[in-house]
Specification:
By secondary structure, this protein is α+β, with helices and mostly antiparallel strands. Helix content is 20%, strand content 28%.
């Protein structure tokens, strides 16, 4: 499903003559830091999908790759399994059409990885009538990442980020959107616990 949706999205993104200007929101980011921040940014870590997400999907791979790059830049050594810590990645998405109707995209169902509710994630919007007709669809992408000890216990860190972009914008591409969201999520890691920031 994801591959066909992304293919349609790419076709829309390449269309010319869209009458409606493209829109991209700031990335809204909230992080929570656990009681042992000294353990963050060091040692080995493996990346896994939240329960219900498809770890083999193209969308998950794009986000997991972006998260891996960030974790490595923070000082982690990313391993394929059995790390000292684990990063749980959850993605989801919603499409809002030009008339305000909002519907989810079946990227995956949240697995309750965070203390503030269901998981969040990645979205794909498709505007098949970009040459003059209705306004382009808006794509709301959401990402949630939790870092914890592989032995279990409370999360060492967790963060969520979301952004909205129209399907005629540069961020209609999953790769571009993933990089922007992940960059914002890990900006000035670990961040101020409980604070919500907007990243342009």
């Amino acid at each position: 499903m994801k591959q066909s949706a992304i293919a349609l999205l790419a076709a829309c993104a390449l269309a010319t003559g869209c009458a409606t200007p493209a829109y991209v929101s700031p990335v809204e980011v909230t992080r929570f830091v656990g009681n042992t921040p000294a353990f963050l940014g060091q040692g080995t870590i493996n990346i896994t999908s939240a329960a219900g997400d498809d770890a083999d999907s193209l969308a998950f791979t794009v986000y997991a790759d972006a998260v891996q790059q960030e974790l490595q830049s923070l000082g982690y050594r990313v391993v394929t399994k059995n790390g000292g810590q684990v990063a749980i990645v959850d993605i989801d998405a919603y499409i809002e059409d030009g008339e305000g109707r909002r519907s989810p995209v079946g990227v995956g169902v949240g697995g309750g990885t965070g203390s503030y509710g269901s998981g969040v994630g990645v979205g794909v919007g498709i505007n098949l009538n970009s040459l003059g007709g209705p306004p382009p669809e808006s794509i709301e992408r959401q990402l949630f990442v939790a870092i914890k000890s592989s032995e279990g216990g409370a999360n060492l860190w967790e963060g969520r980020a979301s952004m909205t972009a129209t399907s005629n914008s540069d961020y209609a591409s999953e790769t571009a959107a993933a990089q922007r969201i992940v960059d914002a999520l890990f900006e000035q890691f670990p961040g101020v616990s409980g604070e919500t920031i907007s990243v342009e």
